[in-house]
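Quick review question:
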């Protein structure tokens, strides 16, 4: 069966859908069927320039609106997106290939909640403060923000930039990934539908090294908020540096999951697999390194192998399936090559999932390797697929050393039945977000990386502050 190909080849600039100045299109494939489902514009540097100009023209008036007016716009968009929820879920599922619960609760549910959360924050955040001594500090919008986003959680990552930027009084140029651009297009149709003032939100589709690079190096871009690979993030930062443009970078990870010897192993290992394999392992904060006491290794491997049998890989629309395909054939080959590398470097395959029944789709069964050491590539490199590395340790000190022995520092988890011990270990891990046991992911918890996992934080008030400049206004001393 051949899918209908949706043609969505226009850019959204200055409040109108306009033709790209370039020729050619980018094909978008459903990773579960391998069929082309849509084509989008292969944008140009001129498209990027036009979008930055529109955002720049719209920014002063947008910043002059009261915070409650901006909050009202965000709530209107939230309501429009909520009314379109089923459609958004279907779009993301076709684009990313993730199972329905993940598509609904996370891929769409979280951004919907975030639109409301940043509307609330716009109304409560102290943008302008003066103390009793007359010391006056204002937080003003940075200006024009380029939001460059990847393919694994496309709507969430876009909203996590766009919503706080708009709340702060910035205008935006969205450059969604060329791999899964369809939910961003739908969101912008909703933006258009609610009648947001022209130029406040612009969207340019195209390839990263063309459109993304132009936005990052544009003299009128005041900030680049980027999520993606560490390699592309470094290029974005270098381009932005040419104009001393502010950057926020949310990059890769190789996140550790330390299981201490007094932890509930059943719970810890089950949770560890879930947070390694979420979105078929295509998650920057995935807990890909399970760091375990050597004298409990056999027990942990046995639990992990048993738990792996519970995973069903296949058509993401089928009920009960919890692992869909990888995003592309390129990604599938990459993951397969890491499985070969792991075996060649001496890691031991503990268990491998049952392959999918489907004839098409970029499926790779999940794999668990043990006896992994920090010098192996599967302990150091971000695979972005369902591959778990188990690294044994001899004592707590060594567990912490192994956890920190990576260029990344995005997320981590510590399991222990002793809260003080868990807290002691958590504070020693160089990562932007560390969970203890089944720790609550409270809404607005700052998220972002240390070391080569990034710069800056997203979500909540810390995420909003990324889009604000601080200005001190020095007043004459009051005369007595
Ligand atoms: P991923 O494969 O995880 O999506 P990338 O880092 O390749 O990671 O892509 C993330 C986003 O960055 C995408 O929107 C992509 O188009 C964009 N991008 C890639 N390379 C560059 C670049 N050199 N300059 C600006 N943006 C880029």
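Suggested answer, residue by residue:
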């Amino acid at each position: 069966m051949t899918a209908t190909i949706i043609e969505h080849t226009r850019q959204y600039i200055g409040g109108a859908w306009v033709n790209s100045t370039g020729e050619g299109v980018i094909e978008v494939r459903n990773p579960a069927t391998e069929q082309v489902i849509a084509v989008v514009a292969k944008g140009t540097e001129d498209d990027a320039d036009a979008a930055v100009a529109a955002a720049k023209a719209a920014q002063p008036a947008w910043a002059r609106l009261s915070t409650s007016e901006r909050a009202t716009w965000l709530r209107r968009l939230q309501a429009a997106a909520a009314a379109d929820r089923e459609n958004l879920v279907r779009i993301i599922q076709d684009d990313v290939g993730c199972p329905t619960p993940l598509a609904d609760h996370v891929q769409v549910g979280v951004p919907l909640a975030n639109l409301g959360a940043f509307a609330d924050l716009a109304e409560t955040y102290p943008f302008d403060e003066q103390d009793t001594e007359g010391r006056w500090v204002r937080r003003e919008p940075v200006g024009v923000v380029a939001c460059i986003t990847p393919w694994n959680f496309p709507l969430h990552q876009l909203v996590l930039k766009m919503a706080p930027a708009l709340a702060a009084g910035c205008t935006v140029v969205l450059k969604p990934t060329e791999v899964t651009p369809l939910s961003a297009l739908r969101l912008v149709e909703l933006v258009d539908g609610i009648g947001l003032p022209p130029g406040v939100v612009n969207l340019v589709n195209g390839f990263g090294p063309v459109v993304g690079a132009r936005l990052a190096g544009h003299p009128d871009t005041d900030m680049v908020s980027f999520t993606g690979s560490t390699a592309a993030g470094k290029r974005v930062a270098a381009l932005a540096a040419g104009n001393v443009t502010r950057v926020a970078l949310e990059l890769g990870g190789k996140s550790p999951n330390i299981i201490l010897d007094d932890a509930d192993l059943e719970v810890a290992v089950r949770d560890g697999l879930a947070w390694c394999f979420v979105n078929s392992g295509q998650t920057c904060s995935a807990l890909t390194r399970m760091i375990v006491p050597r004298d409990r290794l056999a027990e942990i491997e046995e639990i992990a192998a048993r738990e792996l049998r519970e995973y069903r890989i296949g058509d993401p629309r089928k009920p009960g399936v919890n692992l869909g395909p990888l995003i592309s054939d390129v990604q599938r080959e990459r993951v397969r090559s890491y499985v070969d590398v792991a075996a060649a470097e001496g890691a031991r395959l503990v268990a491998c999932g049952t392959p999918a029944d489907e004839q098409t789709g970029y499926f790779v069964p999940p794999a668990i390797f043990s006896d992994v050491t920090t010098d192996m590539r599967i302990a150091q490199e971000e695979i972005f697929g369902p591959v778990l590395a188990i690294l044994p340790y001899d004592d707590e000190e060594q567990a912490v050393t192994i956890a920190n022995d990576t260029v990344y520092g995005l997320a981590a988890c510590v399991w222990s039945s002793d809260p003080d011990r868990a807290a002691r270990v958590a504070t020693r891990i160089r990562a932007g977000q560390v969970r203890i046991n089944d720790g609550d992911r409270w809404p607005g918890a700052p998220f972002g990386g240390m070391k080569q996992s990034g710069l800056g934080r997203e979500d909540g008030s810390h995420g909003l502050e990324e889009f604000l400049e601080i200005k001190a206004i020095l007043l004459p001393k009051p005369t007595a």
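Why it works: The chain has a mean pLDDT of 97. DSSP finds 15 helices and 21 strands in the chain.
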